[in-house]
Specification:
The chain is α/β, with parallel strands linked by helices. Helix content is about 45%, strand content about 25%.
Length: about 220
């Protein structure tokens, strides 16, 4: 009953505050037809990413985990005409769908999807002396979250936001004895955040059409 209620509220909020959007709907439909897992952020969560990017005046955004490009469309739309979004995706098949969806949304000039292991792509960005990012969205394999956070800190400017999705895992994150690799990775990431004086963070539990989960919001202080 609770999940039905959460989904109903999500639908109401989406209709009231987000509305219909042809490009975003098409991106979800294209992803589903391509057989991608239905794990993209919800419309209200996508709108939150968009508003956070606008709030920090993001000109450069880094995304770890493209899937079908749904969240990338939300983030890309917050960029100015000369902005840049770099999205990292392990699966070539998923990356192809994301590129097509970004093109259909008219974002091909500001958005780039790079294929390969994210840790390798992140290391390449550092080695290439990439211009610092204003916002980083991490939504990939959870066991690697500590590594992703460490690289994100090297690539983000002071004042940047780092957002990490799916950190509650239906409440499993509270179990200090869990052997689930995703839970272990998320808890290790939170320990890194707590020990890093350059970071300030909080986490928010969420319920909705995606079930019971949450995100961690981090600000790079220096």
């Amino acid at each position: 009953m609770a999940e039905q209620q959460w989904s109903a509220v999500d639908q109401y909020l989406g209709e009231a505050l987000v509305g219909e959007d042809a490009a975003l709907t098409a991106a979800l439909e294209t992803s589903a037809k391509a057989g991608l897992p239905q794990i993209a952020v919800s419309p209200t969560q996508g709108k939150l990413l968009h508003l956070l990017a606008l709030t920090v005046g993001a000109r450069r955004i880094l995304e770890v985990g493209s899937l079908g490009g749904y969240s990338a469309i939300w983030l890309g739309r917050a960029l100015p005409a000369d902005g840049r979004l770099i999205s990292l995706e392990l699966s070539p098949a998923h990356a192809a769908v994301a590129r097509a969806n970004l093109h259909e949304a008219g974002l091909e000039k500001v958005a780039e999807v790079r294929t390969g292991r994210a840790v390798d792509s992140l290391a390449e960005l550092v080695d290439d002396g990439a211009e610092p990012f204003d916002l980083v969205f991490i939504d990939a394999d959870k066991p690697s979250n500590p590594e992703y956070l460490s690289w994100a800190l090297r690539l983000a400017r002071p004042g940047a936001l780092i957002i990490v999705d799916n950190v509650v895992r239906g409440g499993a994150v509270a179990d200090a004895h869990s052997t689930d690799p995703s839970v272990v990775g998320i808890r290790a990431m939170h320990e890194l955040i707590a020990a890093e004086p350059r970071l300030e963070a909080t986490a928010v539990q969420t319920v909705g059409s995606k079930g019971y989960d949450g995100f961690t919001l981090i600000r790079v202080m220096s």
